[in-house]
Write a structure and sequence with these properties.
This protein is mainly α. The chain has one domain (10-168). It has helices spanning 10-16, 25-44, 46-57, 63-90, 111-143, 145-148, 181-185, and strands at 91-94, 97-100. Strands 1-2 form a two-stranded antiparallel sheet. A hairpin with a 2-residue loop joins strand 1 and strand 2 (97-100). The longest helix is centred in the middle third of the chain and has 33 residues, at 111-143.
Length: 196
């Protein structure tokens, strides 16, 4: 579903976070939509995500679904949005190119400091995401059947089952460590370790 249906409003974001009231809402809306599509959709899977957006759009979100959104997804989404905002607010697109926002009353942070701020809020969002995933895994059979049945098709997103991502590849098999370096990484033929 690519409609511009938002799970949270800008006012909700401002109330639940350290964002000041004077930030232009048009700079925040795209970040809410992007965070929702990039981070919340994979938590829920296609069927549950589409159901929640449809219920929000129709103003009929209630029961277990409202609890899921209010108690688990709002905090996750708010922190993901904040993790995306530092560069969005500091680097803006103008008709003459990309410009860096400056102010007379404050010092502009360095790019490194912006990444540190974004990282802080992304880590916080991943902690909330993990809680949401545990809640869904615990209650999916009875309360959220869409979570277990995300649909079929090449465009369907299967729900993530873990809350954290690792920038380092740690392997994808339990017995992979028993294979030699040559067997794993050398040659043009994929070798599977049958006796591992």
């Amino acid at each position: 579903m690519s409609l511009n249906i938002l799970m949270i409003s800008v006012d909700t974001l401002k109330q639940r976070t350290a964002i000041h009231d004077n930030i232009d809402e048009k700079l925040i809306y795209p970040e809410i939509k992007a965070a929702q599509d990039l981070y919340i959709h994979p938590i829920l899977g296609t069927a549950l995500y589409n159901k929640l957006l449809s219920d929000i759009n129709g103003a009929v979100l209630s029961g277990n679904y409202k609890t899921l959104v209010d108690s688990y997804l709002v905090d996750t989404l708010c922190n993901y949005v904040i993790s995306e905002l530092p560069t969005a607010l500091n680097y803006q697109f103008w008709n003459k190119g990309v410009g860096v926002a400056t102010s007379d009353n404050t010092n502009a942070p360095t790019l490194s400091e912006l990444f540190d701020i974004a990282s802080k809020y992304k880590n916080r969002a991943e902690a909330y995401q993990k809680k949401a995933i545990y809640y869904l895994k615990q209650n999916a059979p009875e309360m959220f059947p869409e979570y277990l049945n995300p649909g079929t098709g090449i465009d369907v997103i299967i729900p993530d089952r873990v809350g954290y991502s690792s920038p380092i590849f740690l392997g994808n098999g339990v017995h992979e460590h028993r294979m030699s370096y040559k067997d794993k990484y050398q040659g043009n033929i994929f070798r599977h370790c049958n006796d591992c």
